[in-house]
């Protein structure tokens, strides 16, 4: 890994209720964006002059397009797949989505809400990522199993085997909840004698 930590910023598209409000930020390059200063609420969109704004630089900056599917794919290709490959190389990796309520964290990581009909539809294609707005987590899962299937062969008497374990938890208002539990069991974060942490009562599926 060239760097231990990388920081990316995503500018989401305006919500319907936000149309007509001042535009305060703009992605100016793949690694920088600018925030307008001294916004006049009376001018609204008439003064979209970002030449006097403050510029911030990150490892990646993502702007939005007319296609949410395309935007999700670009983010995964730039960030998600890289860290999946680092994991397969033996590194511990983590992708952390941080932002205020409504900034697009859940959409980036999971994508749009999936209806129960879609979840129970066995006739749906296994993978329709190209035309889907699914997020980083389901894309990582698809690629992970694809890699396992490609490597599940025997060459020169050596057979490669994979074991995948999965847990899924939520930390909200200082409460830890197991999202793979039928009744959403509350869990507790504990510390071992060697100062490492674990989540007590968290389900793990193989």
Output the helix-strand order.
Answer: EEEEEHHHHEEEEEE
Percent helix: 10-25%
Distinct helical segment count: 4
Shape: globular
Question: What does this 3D model show about the protein?
Answer:
- The protein is α+β, with helices and mostly antiparallel strands.
- It has four helices and eleven strands, in the order βββββααααββββββ.
- The protein has helices at residues 68-88, 105-109, 116-119, 136-151, and strands at 8-10, 25-29, 32-35, 54-57, 60-62, 154-155, 158-159, 169-172, 175-178, 186-191, 197-200.
- Strands 8-9-10-11 form a four-stranded antiparallel sheet, with no helix packed on it. The chain has a three-stranded antiparallel sheet with strand order 2-3-4, with no helix packed on it. Strands 1-5 form a two-stranded parallel sheet.
- α1 packs across α4 (136-151).
- The two termini are 28 Å apart.
- Mean pLDDT is 82; it is low at 42-47, 115-119 and 122-127.
């Amino acid at each position: 890994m060239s760097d231990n930590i990388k920081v990316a910023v995503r500018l989401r598209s305006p919500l319907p209720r936000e149309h007509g409000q001042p535009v305060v930020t703009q992605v100016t390059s793949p690694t920088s964006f600018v925030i307008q200063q001294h916004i006049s609420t009376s001018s609204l969109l008439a003064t979209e002059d970002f030449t006097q704004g403050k510029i911030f630089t990150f490892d990646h900056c993502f702007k939005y397009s007319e296609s949410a599917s395309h935007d999700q794919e670009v983010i995964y290709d730039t960030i998600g797949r890289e860290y999946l490959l680092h994991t397969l190389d033996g590194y511990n990796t983590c992708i952390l989505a941080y932002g205020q309520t409504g900034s697009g964290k859940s959409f980036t990581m999971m994508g749009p809400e999936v209806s129960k009909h879609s979840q129970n539809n066995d006739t749906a294609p296994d993978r329709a990522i190209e035309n889907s707005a699914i997020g980083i987590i389901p894309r990582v899962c698809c690629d992970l199993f694809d890699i396992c299937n490609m490597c599940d062969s025997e060459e020169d008497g050596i057979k490669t085997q994979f074991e995948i374990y999965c847990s899924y938890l939520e930390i909200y208002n200082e409460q830890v909840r197991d999202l793979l539990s039928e009744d959403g069991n509350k869990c507790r974060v504990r510390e071992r004698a060697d100062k490492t942490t674990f989540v007590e009562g968290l389900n793990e599926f193989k």
